[in-house]
User: What shape does this take?
Amino acid sequence: MILLQQSASLRSAFQNQVDKNISAKREEFQDHLGDGFLSSLGGVVFDIRQFKNQLKGSMGEELISLLLQSMPDTWTMFNNALIPAAMGRLTEIDLLIVGSGGVFLVEVKTWNGSFSAYKDKWKRRERDKWVAVAKSPTSQSAFHRKMFEQWIASEVPNFPNNTIVAPVIFTVARWVGTTDCSVPVLHGFSALQKMLVNSPNCLSADQISRISTAVANYTIPTQSANLKPIIKRKKIGDN
Assistant: This one.
């Protein structure tokens, strides 16, 4: 498996978008606490919680990247790939994998506990009852698939149909049960590896190269067309 990277300028643009969203959520959280000491303390708690969630998610993605190093070098992968979404914004895919078996847009969840879902509506087990989960991981992954399909069709002519899969993988959950979700839901790394290995060949080496290059060279449309990001290639596991 070959690890590819997008440009630093694209990552910086996305980070600005993220920072604005986080800042707005932080202010909203503090507003609920009113003025004074509680508001200041709430800001600190929010920042700590945000950092812990980001660290936990990053560790899960990096672990899967290392575990996939046994895949053939004809396959490529991006960590935290950025693609265009609606309204000129960017959306982030935890792991974007391209190989002979297709394009895999992987949403990684390092959630602890037990979870169930019916038609993309999720619940988590809390003691003796099930509580609704605000953000549906399968809906998010289905959104990624839709955005990627729209974008890649304009970048790679004659892009083959039915070659994009957007699974959600739970890496450490105790139990996961789903019914009629819009994308595949996997439990544990071995399930993802099995999906990749057993997927029937549907992309040629040339198609893999063209798709991977399109992702690696993506720039925000408002940027100069003359600015070409450099594709950095390294085999997963290399320093």
Notes: The first strand starts at residue 2 and ends at 4. Confidence is low (pLDDT under 50) at residues 223-237. The CA atoms of residues 138 and 182 lie 7 Å apart. The two ends are 15 Å apart (CA to CA).
